[in-house]
Amino acid sequence: MDSRFEELLIQYAQADTKILQEEIERMLWTEFGTVRSVLVMDMSGFSRLTQKYGIVHYLSMVKRMQVTSQPIIEHLGDVYFKKKMYEKSLEKYEKALTLNHPQADKVKEKIQQLKRLLKQTHPESKRSTKAL
């Protein structure tokens, strides 16, 4: 996802007035707007909320959820790491990486370090040799 697009979605989600949200929505449509069909099957209330508030509102909710969830999932990986549950730790770091957080490089470094550790301590592990 384009970093400018993500930045605007976060600004929209954090805007404290409707006027500011409308201004940001205009910017999003001007810079990125296009008419497409969207099928989302696993987001509760997608059609209703999109019809009521517009797609930008809904996308900002998704982005806010990603920004909020990523550090929590990453921290769970840290907890598993401290408990020497390395496979679980790697699983959480990889999940955190899928959320496109601005600090993805930090998570990638943790994954690389953990894979090196797994390769040294558990050479039989299939996950330790998987490419990043």
Tally of strands: 0
* Secondary structural class: mainly alpha
Strand content: under 5%
In whole angstroms, the N-to-C terminal distance is: 19 Å
Low-confidence stretches: none
Number of helices: 6
Residues in helix, %:
over 70%
Radius of gyration equals 19 Å
Oligomer: single chain
Largest sheet: none
Q: Any idea what the shape is?
A: elongated
Mean pLDDT: 83
Tally of domains: 1
> Strand-and-helix sequence, N→C?
HHHHHH
Describe the structure.
The protein has 132 residues and is mainly α. It has one domain. It is 70% helix and 0% strand. It is built from six helices and no strands. The longest helix has 28 residues, at 55-82. It is elongated and about 55 Å long. The two termini are 19 Å apart. The mean pLDDT is 83.
Give the SSE map.
Layout: H1 3-14, H2 18-32, H3 46-53, H4 55-82, H5 86-97, H6 104-121
Give a quick set of tags describing it.
mainly alpha, 132 residues
Brief synopsis:
The chain is mainly α and 132 residues long. The chain contains six helices and no strands.
